[in-house]
Amino acid sequence: MGSANLLCDRSVARIGNNNIKPLYHMKTRSIMFTRSNFTYLAILALLFISLGDRFLPPPLSTASLQTRTAMNNLLVGAFPSWRPKTKPYERTEKAIDEIEKKQDPANR
User: Fold this and answer.
1) I want to staple 60 with a disulfide (CB 3.0 to 4.6 A). Which of 22, 26, 56, 81 is the partner?
2) What does DSSP say about strands 18-20 and 13-15: parallel, antiparallel, or unpaired?
3) 19 with 6: CB under 8 angstroms?
4) What burial class does residue 56 get, using C-beta atoms within 10 Å of its C-beta: 0-12 exposed, 13-18 middle, 19+ buried?
């Protein structure tokens, strides 16, 4: 067998003395995004957004402040101030006025 011969089986392709394994033989644990990695990333993101402008050097502190401001504006814009179209206390005020008119004999 020379180095130019290509012998293939199901899992390993052999070219000379080199073993080339297919991609599915890689350890996926090293590149997998696990729950603990997500937790650490979420904590770091929250710290960066909330406290980053206080202790990080200037380029990162500016980015932290801008990120927090952008997220604040996004949340404020998502919930606009609600103003009722009707007067919610109008009926109650009318009822109070009618009761006062009935009780006050001078208004008759």
Assistant:
1) 56
2) antiparallel
3) no
4) middle
Amino acid at 15: I
CA distance 15 to 3: 6
Comparing CA positions, the residue from 16, 17, 12 lying closest to residue 3 is 16
Torsion of CA 70, 71, 74, 75, to 10 degrees: -150
For the chain, give the longest Cα–Cα distance. 122
* 20, 13 contact by CB (below 8 A): yes
pLDDT tens-digit series, residues 68-87 = 999 999 988 888 787 767 78
